[in-house]
Amino acid sequence: MPDDETQTPTLNRGPAARTPHDTRAQQLPGAADAPAPWLLRLIAVGLVLAALNLRPAITSLGALLEEVREGLHMSGSVAGVLTSVPPLCFAVFGVMAPRLARRFGAGAVVCAGMVAIAAGLLIRPYIGSTAGFLAASALALMGIAVSNILMPVIVKRWFPDRVGTMTGLYSMALALGTALAAAVTVPVTGALGGDWQTGLVVWAVLAAVAVLPWIVLVRDRTPAPGQPVPAPGPAAAHTEAPALRITRSRTAWGLACFFGLQATAAYITMGWMPQIFRDAGVSAGTAGLLLAVTMAMGVPLAFVIPRVASRLKQQGPIVVVLGLCGLIGYAGLYLAPAAGAWAWVLLLGVANCAFPLALTMIGMRARSGAGVVRLSAFAQSTGYLLSIPGPLLVGVLYQHSGGWGLPIALMAGLMIPQMVAGILAGRDRTIEDEC
User: Fold this and answer.
1) 17-60 pLDDT tens trace
2) Separation of alpha carbons 228 and 214, rounded Å
3) pTM value?
4) Which residue intervals of 105-202 are DSSP H helices?
């Protein structure tokens, strides 16, 4: 693809990582081992289907949380804990992804992740107890967690010259799945008889479909993440990934903080934005639609932003633009939440596109597959851990202050360190250089 991904390092491209264009242009030994075009298309389809399933387990539950509470006789405090479970599971289970990928292959782990999502979504509505519901939710979230970590690794492994394009593709699908589950879960539940259990279980079907493309990669071992195949010649000495002490990298820490702060903003938005508008006099139906619009903004922008970011040596300017959109949106929520509601949700929807930017930078800040999987695990697990207190703190401030002034001020204040961390993470360097 002309001009695409010109800033993406390609030093560790073995025969299995070359694109079809490479094999036509260069008759090198091992060119016959290049992946077939049909396989690349199948993997692209698998990425899209997997990404569609990385958020409906969360947003479909949010849409029916009141019905779930009543059906399981769940207390308000337990329901509050339930809303903080996703980032906790992402942080805890995401740490397992690199080891599992080295042992079984990234494709096999993503396949297992889709199976876990489907199984968790299938059994949790009918398990009949709060503890069981939480356990089944954790099973689905475990599958989401490992798949979250390995999406950038799959892209780096199979599409080394199209990191921005493919990251944009699956980020767009992720945003679509998020918005779709938020928007249609309640109508679908009503159309199927009004039973919240049926409304939740329908999303297991989508996860089951996503398993199918990944079955092809269950036995893929060439190369597994963290074990790249050496290239012929003198370059072979550079293909073996060194033992990285990733905690010594300022870029890794900057990316982890940037990821955590953008995740904080996203979970606050998903959890509290409808209530902000409802307290300002907006109807419940319109408040839900406003949230869906915020999430839907990520569908086109999640495809555009990674492509633009991959062509820049430094991604700091994009970080600043997204941060300024967030600051203006929060200022609008503070000053005139109802009067300018549509403008504020559009601006905050743009600000939430820091997520695909962070995923793109994960692929660009490491030279090797081993570096990407370690950076992805570190940045996402640490970031999700940092994001856990945010939504809870907003709830505490709202309850004790009796209004949204302090919570919105907190949300706006967090945009400043997010921009600083993003500028640090967006510098033109790799973790291998720093470690």
Assistant:
1) 444 444 333 333 333 456 788 889 999 999 999 999 998 998 88
2) 20
3) 0.73
4) 106-123, 130-158, 163-191, 196-201
